[in-house]
């Protein structure tokens, strides 16, 4: 990427950028529309546009998808600056270079069809959420902001919040929720404390959840070095509120079907539940219409410069028609 250009993605640093560019076969920066249209890449988790910026600068046309309305605005501003400053858009028609859609990636096939996206060269799924959500957002993603509402919805089109789930779910469903990220003993303790807390008053704020977590003894789920005891409970809540694992299972199949022969599906996961789904899906495809699987983790330098990268796992799989295998 050209270091002259300041991309205004608040705080967030995209992970494994070089590895993804290499995996997608991107070449040196191109500067005209004809060349830029040779590769079509779908960034199905657009965020602030960090990865999409690299794709544009390396010659691709990008369809960006994000379920969060605020991130769509931020990414749009960032990518327009790139096109204006580096790709010299003469017509002012940004659709010549990229298209951004506000929507859940589980509808990737419909979104691609509605925008006439065909012959897709590569698709990226960068799971998890942006640093922006932890530092600047007030929807309750961060346990370091106790006065925030316990919302956790990535899309305001969704009706059910994290607080709604905690106040309404029964014991078995609460257990299922927390087991997405916690061990059985920790999930059971947390479930019991939720049930006890809401006998007194409704759960509404981050501070309420922190009070609940503080009453649970440390267990196997909290023994990882450096992990705050609130991290996994908040992760489990966010996954449940946004149906993240269900949507991931859906998008993997749809994304694979969109790829042209020789196309690449890349997924960056940040916790074991996500990676388990991705690994299972890739295993199903290997020997059928997928090969050349890659597994990459960040190097020491990247982790030192971007602590968020420490838990990242990148898997890339290449699609081939059976006749090509």
Question: How is this fold's topology laid out?
Answer:
Blueprint: H1 17-23, H2 33-36, E1 39-43, H3 50-57, E2 60-66, H4 69-86, E3 98-102, H5 108-114, E4 120-126, H6 131-135, H7 162-168, H8 171-178, H9 184-200, H10 206-214, H11 231-241, H12 244-258, E5 259-269, H13 272-285, E6 290-296, H14 300-305, E7 313-319
Parallel strand pairs: 1-2, 1-4, 2-3, 4-5
Antiparallel strand pairs: 5-7, 6-7
Helix pairs in contact: 3-4, 8-9, 12-13
Question: What features would you describe in this structure?
Answer:
The protein is α/β, with parallel strands linked by helices and 325 residues long. It is built from 14 helices and 7 strands. Helix 4 links the parallel strand 2 and strand 3 (98-102). Helix 8 (171-178) packs across helix 9 (184-200) and helix 12 (244-258) packs parallel to helix 13. The protein is globular.
Task: Spell out the key features of this protein.
alpha/beta; 7-stranded mixed beta sheet; 14 helices; 15% strand; DNA polymerase, domain 1; 2 domains; Rossmann fold; 325 residues
Span between termini: 35 Å
> How large, in whole angstroms, is the Cα Rg?
21 Å
Give the oligomeric state of the chains in this entry, treating copies of one chain as homo and distinct chains as hetero. Answer: single chain
CATH H-level superfamily title of the largest domain: Vaccinia Virus protein VP39
Brief synopsis:
The protein has helices spanning 17-23, 33-36, 50-57, 69-86, 108-114, 131-135, 162-168, 171-178, 184-200, 206-214, 231-241, 244-258, 272-285, 300-305; strands at residues 39-43, 60-66, 98-102, 120-126, 259-269, 290-296, 313-319. By secondary structure, it is α/β, with parallel strands linked by helices. The two termini are 35 Å apart.
């Amino acid at each position: 990427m050209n270091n002259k250009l300041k991309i205004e993605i608040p705080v967030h640093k995209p992970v494994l950028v070089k590895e993804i560019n290499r995996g997608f076969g991107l070449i040196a920066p191109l500067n005209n529309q004809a060349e830029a249209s040779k590769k079509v890449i779908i960034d199905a988790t657009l965020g602030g546009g960090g990865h999409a910026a690299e794709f544009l600068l390396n010659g691709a046309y990008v369809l960006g998808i994000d379920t969060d309305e605020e991130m769509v605005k931020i990414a749009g501003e960032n990518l327009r600056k790139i096109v204006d400053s580096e790709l010299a858009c003469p017509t002012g028609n940004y659709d010549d270079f990229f298209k951004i859609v506000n929507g859940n990636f589980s509808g990737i096939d419909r979104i691609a069809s509605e925008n006439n996206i065909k012959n897709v060269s590569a698709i990226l799924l960068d799971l998890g959420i942006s640093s922006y959500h932890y530092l600047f957002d007030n929807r309750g993603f961060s346990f370091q902001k106790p006065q925030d509402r316990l919302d956790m919805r990535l899309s305001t089109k969704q009706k059910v919040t994290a607080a709604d789930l905690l106040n309404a779910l029964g014991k078995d469903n609460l257990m299922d929720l927390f087991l997405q990220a916690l061990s059985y003993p920790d999930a059971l303790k947390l479930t019991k404390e939720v049930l006890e807390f809401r006998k007194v008053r409704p759960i509404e704020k981050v501070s309420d959840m922190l009070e609940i977590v503080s009453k649970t003894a440390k267990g196997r789920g909290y023994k990882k070095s450096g992990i705050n005891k609130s991290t996994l409970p908040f992760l489990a809540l966010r996954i449940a509120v946004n149906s993240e694992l269900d949507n991931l299972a859906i998008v993997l199949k749809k994304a694979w079907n969109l790829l042209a022969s020789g196309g690449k599906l890349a997924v960056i996961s940040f916790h074991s539940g996500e990676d388990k789904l991705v690994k299972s899906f890739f295993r199903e495809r290997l020997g059928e219409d997928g090969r050349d699987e890659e597994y990459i983790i960040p190097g020491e330098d990247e982790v030192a410069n971007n602590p968020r990268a420490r838990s990242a796992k990148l898997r890339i799989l290449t699609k081939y028609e059976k006749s090509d295998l």
